[in-house]
Amino acid sequence: MLDWHHVGPTWPHHDSSRFVEAHGLRWHVQTTGSGPLVLLLHGTGLGSYSWAPIIDRLASRFSFVAPDFPGHTFTSMPAPDGLTLDAMASGIRALLQALGLAPQLVVGHSAGAALGARLLLDGLDAKGFVGINPAILLRPDPRSLFVWPALEWTANRPIFVDLATRFCADPARLAFAFRRAAPRLAAPELALHQLVLGQREQHLAAFGMMARWDVRPVRRALPDFPVPALLIAGERDPWFPPRVVRALASEFPAAETVVIPGTGHLTHEEDPDLVASRILGFAERIGL
Asked: Which residue in 25, 32, 107, 108 could disulfide with 41, CB within 3.0 to 4.6 Å?
């Protein structure tokens, strides 16, 4: 795991960082900005740092609370069963309670969108939801495949965690992978991802999530989704392309879809100006 005392002074928005005990974990969370409170939920294997470009553009309009997920970046690692979707939702609720914060808008990227949807379906009292490259409609859902037990076993083997860590620690290999996954990602953001993904604990948490998350209950509950939703798709996202995001939007009672040209799976980092403007427009439409 990254050492805050070593990298903290140069970390994005380091002055807004704090460490909070909640749900049996020591969480790293950033709180900043001014205005209606927005909960930012990052994707698998990333961290709150992924939201820095959006915070930079909207901190004069909104307040933000952006935690690192369990086992990610600077938040402590839970027991294996603490990496399920339900356990992580419970952890986020406990963290918000410990902070005394009540978000009015939930914004989630990739797996963070599934987590945000879970929180809202479970009763989080917010006014709206933004899912960026939302990892909710999986085609196919790995848990529906007959090979799922083998995939789950694989995700829990240390050898695969070690291989992923070594792959990401090589700058050339990681840059090659990101050219497909996030073709418009700038060099400073790529350098941050390389630093984070070079940590073995980051992959333990990410593989643990992938082995234990089940988003099917979230998807089944979408017809009863309690708030308006905006789903943002990257035109070149290799995993959740616009057609998948549009299909997902049709399962919500009230959802609109926006496609960001030229971007991949890290849309909010690749074109933060356009994504920020879409979030702001949506927030205004729902009265924030």
From this structure: 108
The answer to whether 42 and 192 are in contact (CB under 8 A) is no
Query: How far is 135 from 45, CA to CA, in rounded Å?
Result: 13
146 pLDDT more than 80: no
Residue 80: phi and psi, rounded to 5, are -50, -40
Q: Which structural domains are found in the chain, ordered by start?
A: 4-142+214-285 (3.40.50.1820)
> What angle is formed at CA 251 by the lines to CA 250 and CA 255, rounded to 5 degrees?
60
Q: Specify which residues 27 forms β-bridges with.
A: 20
| Model pTM score | 0.96
DSSP 190: H
What residues contact 205, with CB distance under 8 A and at least 6 apart? 45, 69, 70, 71, 72, 77, 83
Task: Return the amino acid letter for 179.
Answer: R
Given the DSSP bridges, would you call strands 255-260 and 128-132 parallel, antiparallel or unpaired? unpaired
